[in-house]
Amino acid sequence: MQSTVLAPFTARDGENLALYEWPLDAWAHEMGQYAPPPRAIVLLVHGLGEHASRYDHVAHQLMEWGFAVRAYDQRGHGESGGARGVLPNETALLDDLAEVVDDTRLRGMRLLEAAYADRRHSESQLQLPLILLGHSMGGLVVSRFVSLGIRPVEGLVMSSPALDPGLGLVQKLLLSFMPRLAPDLCVGNGLDAHYISHDEEVVRKYFADRQVHNKISPRLGKFIATAGPATVAAAAQWRTPTLLMYAGADRLVNPAGSRAFADNAANSPAVKSGTVTARCFDGLYHEIFNEVESEQVFDTLKSWLDARF
Fold first, then answer.
1. Residue among 166, 155, 171, 174 at smallest CA distance from 255
2. Residue 170 phi, psi dihedral angles, 5° rounding
3. What is the pLDDT of residues 38-93, one digit of tens each?
4. Which of 29, 114, 158, 285 would suit a FRET pair with 144, their CA atoms being 20 to 30 Å apart?
């Protein structure tokens, strides 16, 4: 079954964000199965230039494992409002995530209220765990969100996060002044999407997808360039249970950023053992959930979720 497109979610600044939900009960009914209360709710956050519907297969796998799933198109992407690749301010993506998280918490309570409708329940029973799962720029957004403590979450999953965008000297120089001179001037993001996956059909569909774009503005570029190193540094004080999965042959973001995050967490006495689980998939390209060998990625995700939720 496809996702349900919810009514447009309006951010505080008036921008409409497309919000999606994969109803666990409807899926179970379609499969002829009983749907118990969800184990947790997973909020998917997509990457630069793409949109949430590209994660339909990930959502269905999570539902099969007993998780409720939500996602949204980040502003300037997919069905959401906003000029492609443009941000009104450098914290806009984090602010949007905070609002969607708040709404998702309420949705989780409603799901459990329905599940416990015929019995007495405590307030703690209505607190459905919330897990953020972000890919690429989405992985950067969710990890920066957690590092700043904007809202508490029970789990974090990063897929090939853009913790190190691999900027050259000229790009860094441009980002030192362009966000002030022309913050909304959009250019191509310079990423070669032929290397998102070894699966040629995935690549073909990506280029044929009319909702995919390659735009980026100086303000968005600055957010990515500054949030990545800040998040890597924050790993030394990490508290949230985290699964970090990244591609060893990534040509869109530098996997060194993920390695640095994992090393900072592993070598810090302030980080409890087991808080951060890191796995590098050697030979895989950027979109690990869309790779030919994605089974090992899903297996790693399932093992981590089963151990904690």
1. 166
2. -65, -40
3. 899 999 999 999 999 999 999 999 999 999 999 999 999 999 999 999 999 999 99
4. 285
Compute the distance between CA of residue 199 and CA of residue 251 in angstroms, rounded to an integer. Answer: 15
Amino acid at 148: L
Using the predicted structure, report yes or no on whether residue 111 has a pLDDT greater than 80.
no
Helix orientation angle between 137-147 and 218-234, rounded to the nearest 10 degrees: 50
- Nearest Cα residue to 144 out of 201, 229, 206: 229
The pLDDT tens digits for 219-240 are: 998 899 999 999 999 999 999 9
The number of C-alpha atoms within 13 Å of 276 and in the hemisphere containing its C-beta is 27
Q: Which amino acid is at 1?
A: M
- Which helix (H) or strand (E) segment holds residue 215: the answer is strand 215-216
pLDDT class of 27 with cuts at 50, 70, 90:
low
Per the rule left: phi > 0, alpha: psi between -120 and 50, beta: everything else, 274 is: left
Element (H, E) at 202: helix 200-208
Torsion of CA 73, 50, 234, 240, to 10 degrees: 60
Most distant pair of Cα atoms in the chain: their distance: 63
| CA–CA dist 228, 87 (Å, integer) | 17
Question: What pTM was estimated for this model as a whole?
Answer: 0.92
Residue (of 228, 3, 245, 21) closest to 135 by Cα position: 245
Burial profile 90-118: b = 16 or more Cβ within 10 angstroms, e = fewer: eebbbbbbbbbbebbbebbeebbeebeee
**What CATH fold (topology level) applies to the domain 4-308?**
Rossmann fold (3.40.50)
Question: How many other β-carbons are positioned within 10 Å of the β-carbon of residue 88?
Answer: 17
| pLDDT at res. 57 | 96
- Predicted confidence at residue 288, as pLDDT, reads 99
What are the sequence ranges of the domains in the chain?
Answer: 4-308
